[in-house]
Structure prediction request, 170 residues.
Amino acid sequence: MARLEILHYPDPRLRTVAKPIARIDARIQQLAADMAETMYAAPGIGLAATQVNVHERIIVVDVSEDQSDLRVLINPSFEPLDVQTKTYQEGCLSVPGVYDEVERPDRILVRAQGLQSESLVFEADGLLSVCIQHEIDHLDGKVFVDYLSRLKQGRIQTKMVKEARQRATL
Ligand code: GNR
Ligand code: NI
Prediction:
């Protein structure tokens, strides 16, 4: 097991579109375990491979309060189940300290593969739905701040670059 380093916005590597995973083998099992360890240590409720600079389509999610509901989703996709949207205050381990409202479909149908290559199909709503959509965005090179105004995006970028510079000169 290993903790992986998380990329910070506006790192251009967060814009990489991840490739589908063709073979779920020991390497992918190890990556999933390392991603789960990294997510729990952060702590966070989800992590996409993109955030640890691995550009393959795998995410880990656990929205439980006691780390009892880990889901590893490989090649995940979703479709909205109705037109209802919900606004949620989102945060991101790649944009630490920034929280803002994002509107997304509420009820979704999720399709993915599990670690044994089994097909997973399930419905999600609430926080689980938000988190899965947020993680799939990462796999497509998107970050939640992309949904905010250009003004807010500029301010967030300035703040993040300043903080990175401060860390570098400690
Ligand atoms: O830990 C996380 N919390 C969170 C809160 C609201 C909406 C989305 C998230 S995901 C985030 C972890 C993360 O950055 N995953 O990519
Ligand atoms: Ni994120």
